[in-house]
Amino acid sequence: MKLLSVLSAFLILFQSVNISLGDLSGMDEFLEHASFHKEQYGDNLLVFISKHYGELKAEHEKNHQEEQHEHEKLPFQHQSCTHHLANVCVLFSSGPDKVKVDGESEESANYYYLQSDSAGFRSGIFQPPRKA
């Protein structure tokens, strides 16, 4: 039971940071390319990671076009999760809309309602109660 719990926890961890089995199987290419950089350029592991995943990536890709085929084989090169980050940034960067209410001053709207065009909502049964 403990083994199952630990395996489930690792599965959830890998999925939350978007690590797939393809990335884990590509670790041999990662280590092979890292050793190539150590022999060829004298890079340590931190410089290698910076050149392929960090701030030196654009410069390294520009200067070493001949290694492009090897760079595509490296793990963690997919960009599938960036749209979620962009949506979160837009969500938190945009403030509430300002609405004018019958000549009053502007207030921030905290709700949004759109009338449904469904036939079920046009009949009287799904309408709110009316004043008597």
Entry keywords:
single chain, 132 residues, mainly alpha, two-stranded antiparallel sheet, elongated
Q: How would you describe the overall organization of this protein?
A:
About 55% of the residues lie in helices and about 5% in strands. It is mostly helical. It folds into two domains: about 1-75, no CATH class; about 80-125, no CATH class. Strands 1-2 form a two-stranded antiparallel sheet. The model is unreliable at about 80-95 (pLDDT under 50).
Q: What integer value in Å does the Rg equal?
A: 27 Å
Encode the helix/strand succession as letters. HHHHHHHEEH
Count of the domains: 2
Mean pLDDT: 75
Shape: elongated
Q: For the largest beta sheet, what order do the strands appear in spatially? A: 1-2
From the N-terminal CA to the C-terminal CA, the straight-line distance is 63 Å
Number of helices: 8
Largest sheet: 2 strands, antiparallel
Strand content: under 5%
Poorly predicted runs of 5 or more residues: 81-97
Q: Would you count the extended β strands for me?
A: 2
Helicity range of the residues? 55-70%
- Helix/strand class: mainly alpha
Note the topology.
Elements: H1 2-16, H2 21-25, H3 27-41, H4 45-53, H5 57-63, H6 68-73, H7 82-93, E1 98-99, E2 107-108, H8 119-122
Antiparallel strand pairs: 1-2
Write a brief caption for the model.
The chain is mainly alpha-helical and 132 residues long. The protein is 55% helix and 3% strand.
